[in-house]
Amino acid sequence: MLRETGLEESGIEIPVEPETIGHFEAAETLHRLFAKMAPEDRLVLTLFYVDECTTSEIAARTRWTRTGVKVRLYRARNKLRALLKTEGIGE
């Protein structure tokens, strides 16, 4: 299950009406956008939001510092936000 807090708290809002887009289409869009991101950005976002790892757990798995994980999360969120805007989502 996706982490319930996170994208909303980080300023990424995806205003989608349930009848407008299905789960499959949303997942497809997310996969397409992730394909445009650097592997490290995909990794940190996936570990945090999908696998629900803490920043400490991500640091242990990746051998990055906890501060480095926080910085990577911040930058990856910003990159995802920019990609969403280029797709016309979340404006």
Give the CATH class of one domain: Mainly Alpha
How far from one another are the termini? 25 Å
Biggest β-sheet description: none
Helical content stands at: 55-70%
Helical segment count: 4
CATH architecture of one domain: Orthogonal Bundle
Average pLDDT score = 85
The structural class is mainly alpha
Low-confidence stretches at least 5 residues in length (pLDDT < 50)? Answer: none
Order of helices and strands: HHHH
Account of the protein in words:
There is one protein chain. With 91 residues, this protein is mainly alpha-helical. It has a domain at 38-86: Arc Repressor Mutant, subunit A, CATH 1.10.10. Helices cover 59% and strands 0% of the residues. It is built from 4 helices and no strands. It has helices at 23-35, 39-50, 55-62, 66-86. Helix 2 (39-50) crosses helix 4 (66-86) and helix 3 packs across helix 4. The radius of gyration is 13 Å and the shape is elongated. It starts with 22 loop residues before the first helix and ends in a 5-residue tail after the last helix. The mean pLDDT is 85.
